[in-house]
């Protein structure tokens, strides 16, 4: 039946010439004419199938590890007698040791093989992402050091796991940060399956560390109980005793209350950095996982990379600088007054008033920028770019954190007393923050998918080259120095006047939003947490529930601001 079908096919021109030269062989079956051979036996198709199979297997490995860790953490939350925190730490320590073994093998073995890294993704691992890994990693190391010191002081009521786990965590953080700093751009071409599984195992471990950080409020509850005792002592209800509550049955004595307060305050201040570190590492590792086995062609990698130049903008930096300066003043006043023994109500009014003024300005700028993108009618960039796809996913996913917190606050405030001044300010802040996040996401995602403008910058580059040549050939003279300063000023004014109003407006808006997002990133990152310190939502939902909500939404909100800065800078550079 198979040979009959082959014999009925019409021979091509080359086949006729070949049949005339040689006698036909009826026993030979031409498999290249069948669908199965054409579609499954090519080298390219086999490579794609192997890549999909490796991604599927590594994804299943990560999914099983995450489900196992979630089961442990959930059991600890709902039945802390059967599954203790120490047992969860033991599981995570085993995963960290496995990740460390794979990272060391990658650094010393896989990456040093011949033809291992033929291509590097220029879009992956930008400097600001790798700098964030180092910053948050350093703060996480300091956090674990405070936790080790806190546990060492209270060693009589804490197990040795409380010291061992942060020590392993410090080693894991340092090794992972070194690995991501040097190899985040790699498109590895050897040992695909092992590399994919190692990357996915590391991603799953970071996700479980983030989940544990979100749900574990053990030390926070200890500090909260100690603060309640101090308040009772000041109220005259209980005699002073430098104690802190370590578990349900044991009182542990702090030998030195000053050191204990330093460790406690440092732990609370640095706690969000650990969750930020886990999220940033997951995003970088995911891009590396997508780039395993990827071959980048010459036309796909852009030979000319746009550079950041502070030219063509005037009003954006001025307005942004004003917002940053006012924000720093508000943040300093908040840190002085809100972190005292009794929080001042007026400082919360000042804090939320600043946001209520700033957020509408940012929303209007994002809406205007989106309209300008539509008026420009630039074509969409349809080239495959895993980094850009991940940027969009991270922007949308990270925005869910602060949007979710805002909706929880809205429900709590409407259900209690929305007419109160502070409650009405928090309610307005929540609504405006939701609207600002949505409009900024639309502006950034639309800008990232637009093709870059490079045609009108040749004249500017020639002028800059002439100026730089003049700098190299100049003599130290006050007259020539004044002429060169005048040339630079005229070049700046010429650049600003040559830009079209659309490009000029895009650069002004994006630079203003960059500075605003920076100050909105700095304030919650370095200790301004009014959502937890004003006590309104905490009294409505309860301490533990609101702790989980804040530790889920706050790090995502900080990560959103940091990630938005990268997207807005790219829009500024390419405008």
UniProtKB/TrEMBL annotation:
<feature type="transmembrane region" description="Helical">
    <location>
        <begin position="128"/>
        <end position="151"/>
    </location>
</feature>
<keyword id="KW-0813">Transport</keyword>
<feature type="transmembrane region" description="Helical">
    <location>
        <begin position="354"/>
        <end position="372"/>
    </location>
</feature>
<dbReference type="GO" id="GO:0005886">
    <property type="term" value="C:plasma membrane"/>
</dbReference>
<keyword id="KW-1133">Transmembrane helix</keyword>
<feature type="transmembrane region" description="Helical">
    <location>
        <begin position="392"/>
        <end position="414"/>
    </location>
</feature>
<keyword id="KW-0472">Membrane</keyword>
<feature type="region of interest" description="Disordered">
    <location>
        <begin position="1"/>
        <end position="24"/>
    </location>
</feature>
<feature type="transmembrane region" description="Helical">
    <location>
        <begin position="163"/>
        <end position="181"/>
    </location>
</feature>
<feature type="transmembrane region" description="Helical">
    <location>
        <begin position="310"/>
        <end position="334"/>
    </location>
</feature>
<comment type="similarity">
    <text>Belongs to the otopetrin family.</text>
</comment>
<keyword id="KW-0812">Transmembrane</keyword>
<feature type="transmembrane region" description="Helical">
    <location>
        <begin position="268"/>
        <end position="289"/>
    </location>
</feature>
<feature type="transmembrane region" description="Helical">
    <location>
        <begin position="426"/>
        <end position="448"/>
    </location>
</feature>
<dbReference type="Pfam" id="PF03189">
    <property type="entry name" value="Otopetrin"/>
</dbReference>
<protein>
    <submittedName>
        <fullName>OTOP3 protein</fullName>
    </submittedName>
</protein>
<feature type="transmembrane region" description="Helical">
    <location>
        <begin position="509"/>
        <end position="528"/>
    </location>
</feature>
<feature type="transmembrane region" description="Helical">
    <location>
        <begin position="56"/>
        <end position="82"/>
    </location>
</feature>
<keyword id="KW-1003">Cell membrane</keyword>
<feature type="transmembrane region" description="Helical">
    <location>
        <begin position="540"/>
        <end position="560"/>
    </location>
</feature>
<dbReference type="InterPro" id="IPR004878">
    <property type="entry name" value="Otopetrin"/>
</dbReference>
<keyword id="KW-0375">Hydrogen ion transport</keyword>
<dbReference type="GO" id="GO:0015252">
    <property type="term" value="F:proton channel activity"/>
</dbReference>
<feature type="transmembrane region" description="Helical">
    <location>
        <begin position="193"/>
        <end position="213"/>
    </location>
</feature>
<keyword id="KW-0407">Ion channel</keyword>
<keyword id="KW-0406">Ion transport</keyword>
<feature type="transmembrane region" description="Helical">
    <location>
        <begin position="88"/>
        <end position="108"/>
    </location>
</feature>
<feature type="compositionally biased region" description="Basic residues">
    <location>
        <begin position="7"/>
        <end position="17"/>
    </location>
</feature>
